[in-house]
TrEMBL record:
It comes from the Bacteria. It comes from Herbidospora galbida. This is Uncharacterized protein.
Length: 272
């Protein structure tokens, strides 16, 4: 899963957030201002399922400051970071709706972080990555239905970008947007629907988009991830020698199996 992890950690949304969080003192102050608006936006949206000018009252901010944060000419908005890469399915919206979209991304980020941690430590393969991201979006939607209703149940744009990285060339932004919107709709139906049930509903769509060869070869990326983890682990010399012996024994056993299978293909299986 190294490729998906790398793409997700260097996605447009991730780089945008990193620039503001780890940039200059001015950038950090700007991020602090944004979080005040995000907090107010989430409070207003979750109280009524919509976002209006009450956000300014709750945040204590002004219209002019709001426009410097998320207005059409705001230099540091998430929409500006995406630029021409912003999927058409999102489109251009007014400042308050753009604020709600960014608030969705801001609120979703801890769920995204958990998904990335799962990729680092869990089973490899694109199908596992796709399922994990769907579960993250479903949990997020169940926890924040009012906020999502404020944007018409749109998925977080960062989740669309991440799932496109998982699928590779097998899906368009519109496909991914609709798939994740279905996840959100199912997860916000009123009664709390377990994320696993939501996942079951879209699993056929995931399977249709994850290349068959990827699903067939999922043990290989899992093995590669395990080896990379072993090589990067802090082991003392005896542990390293034991790990090397284990890998050599496994490799030799695999070679014997390959040789046996080759002979059987050439000569037919041996009689019992």
């Amino acid at each position: 899963m190294a490729d998906v992890l790398t793409e997700s950690r260097r996605s447009v949304a991730a780089r945008w957030r990193e620039r503001l969080l780890q940039g200059s003192r001015h950038g950090k102050r700007h991020w602090a201002t944004r979080t005040v608006y995000y907090t107010a936006c989430r409070e207003v949206a979750e109280a009524g399922g919509r976002v209006g000018r009450e956000v300014l009252d709750v945040s204590g901010g002004s219209t002019s400051t709001l426009y410097t944060v998320v207005g059409p000419r705001a230099r540091h908005s998430l929409a500006a970071a995406y630029g021409e890469e912003l999927p058409d399915c999102f489109g251009r919206v007014d400042a308050l709706t753009e604020l709600a979209r960014e608030t969705v991304v801001w609120t979703f980020w801890p769920y995204r972080d958990s998904w990335l941690q799962m990729l680092e430590s869990g089973p490899g393969g694109r199908m596992a990555a796709a399922e994990g991201l769907v579960l993250a979006v479903a949990d997020f939607a169940a926890d924040h239905p009012g906020l999502l209703r404020a944007t018409g149940l749109e998925p977080p744009v960062c989740a669309v970008e991440d799932l496109m990285a998982v699928f590779g060339r097998m899906a368009t932004a519109r496909d991914v947007f609709c798939l994740l919107q279905d996840v959100i709709i199912d997860a916000t139906r009123g009664l709390h629907v377990p994320a696993e049930v939501v996942l079951d509903g879209v699993r056929p769509k995931l399977e249709a988009r994850v290349p068959v060869v990827e699903r067939a070869n999922e043990p290989l990326p899992a093995l590669a991830d395990a080896v990379v983890g072993l090589l990067s682990a802090r082991l003392d010399p005896p542990q390293r020698r034991a790990a090397a012996d284990l890998l050599e024994a496994a490799a030799e056993a695999l070679r014997r199996t390959i040789r046996t299978e080759g002979r059987e293909r050439d000569n037919g299986p041996r009689a019992a």
